[in-house]
Amino acid sequence: MSEEGDRLEPADWEDFGDEMHALLEQCIGRMKAARDLPWQPLPAGLGDSLKLEPSETGSGTAATFRHLTEDIMPYATGNTHPAFFGWVHGTGLPVSVGAELVAATMNSNCGGRDHGAMKVEQAVLDWLLKLAGFGSDASAILTSGTSQATILALSAARTRLFGKEIRKTGIQSLPEIAVYLCKGTHSCIAKALEVMGHGTDALTFVETNEALQMDMAALKAAVERDRANGRVPLAVIGTAGAVDTGVFDPIDDLAAFCNEAGIWLHVDAAFGFWTRLADQPWRDLCRGIEKANSIACDFHKWMSVPYDCGACMIYDRELHLQTFSSRPSYLEHQEAGLGGGGTWYCDLGLELSRGFRALKVWTAVKAIGMDAFGNAISDNCRQAGLMAELVEKSDVLQLAHPVTSNVCCFYPEKGDPNEIAARLQLQGSAVFSTTKQKGRSCLRAAIVNHRTTSMDIIRSIEAVEAQVRLEATNTQV
Ligand SMILES: Cc1ncc(COP(=O)(O)O)c(C=O)c1O
Predict the structure, then answer these.
(1) Which stretch of DSSP H or E encloses residue 267?
(2) Helices 317-324 and 146-162 meet at what angle, rounded to 10?
(3) Please, are residues 215 and 209 in contact by the beta-carbon 8 Å criterion?
(4) What is the pLDDT of residues 86-112, one digit of tens each?
(5) Same domain for 379 and 348
(6) 146 lines ligand 1 (CB under 6 A)
(7) Is residue 23 classed exposed, middle or buried when 0-12, 13-18 and 19+ CB atoms within 10 A define those classes?
(8) Is the CB of 243 under 6 A from ligand 1?
(9) Quick check: 234 and 202 in contact, CB under 8 A?
């Protein structure tokens, strides 16, 4: 029978230690075998076998850990496999698994207060702001991802435009606002405006140029048109790495325009931010990003840090605080003790309770070093180029757009891209996702995978070609 104070503790620490070691062995085994473990379909009845009863009596650690390794771990997303190119899913890092273990052991709440985890987050954010080229007045916060970071960034933009009073008065009395973006901009911008209460009517879509970037003349004309109609520009969204094409908007030009027009420039750099670590020519793709007013990026994409972790950077710390800071009496700052310390991250975002996301980032950067990350990111860009070459040489595939960075989209000559993607996934040969380019469905690879080799690219394209040829044969019969 458990007693007061240790009812939830392991019944026997020695047994628990053995069970934890065994679990760790299983996890290490899975990570070592990642190259042979693609996504696999779920067995029928898995959901049922995981159901929890209101009257659970507790099965003990050993039996429960067995569930973890036998019934749950095998059915992962598959983004740890080298032929996974779907959506924009990072691959994960073995070294950060160690960090996750330590973070869970510490169980720190990073909303605020004076403890070591806060210093780790500060160190990560200082490093990130330097990488972005932001000045000493800037601030940042780790988020669950770019979607959340976007809400924070556009809220800060709104504070700059309408003042912090808006936190009290709300949006009822505001004029109609406008946010400028291209057709292919990620849906997180629209979602942010929805939850901020402006709705998607606030979006002004700007034409793209031949290189699929935001067209500067079209942007200027759109702003003039909106202003003449009484709409107030809130922000221009520049994308550093478009989700569908990997194209980078001309951030430098956007910054010059926004600066002159007095409009906030937000850069969605969810994955493209990390080209700053790559070789040329990719390193220069987000030239000018340091002049943005805010940047959103993700560690869980091209930096391979395990899910989830993104970041929001704001050029003006004061504005950032004005947008979110709130200290009711139960959160009063102490001069000394645990209730003291420097920045409390609850003052820079929406969440009060926050996990120790920073540790897996800090550990990855410290253990692996920037050169290796830069090389892996450059490898991915070269691999996207190789994929495009193979597609261009293929007699059954057609490239949808030139490759700028790490995204390659192509049309199969025969068959439905969605069905082809599904068959490849079910075979375990490769994971592509799909999208539409110029209104036509295509297969899409977004390569943010540090395990991928050129051979994986060659084999994956061969697998696609085999499927398309099969389709051609079937339609002839
Ligand atoms: C360009 C871009 N922006 C935003 C997002 C959303 O990021 P998250 O999934 O971290 O919220 C993505 C996700 O793929 C993306 O590619």
Answers:
(1) strand 264-268
(2) 100
(3) yes
(4) 999 999 999 999 999 999 999 999 999
(5) no
(6) yes
(7) middle
(8) yes
(9) yes
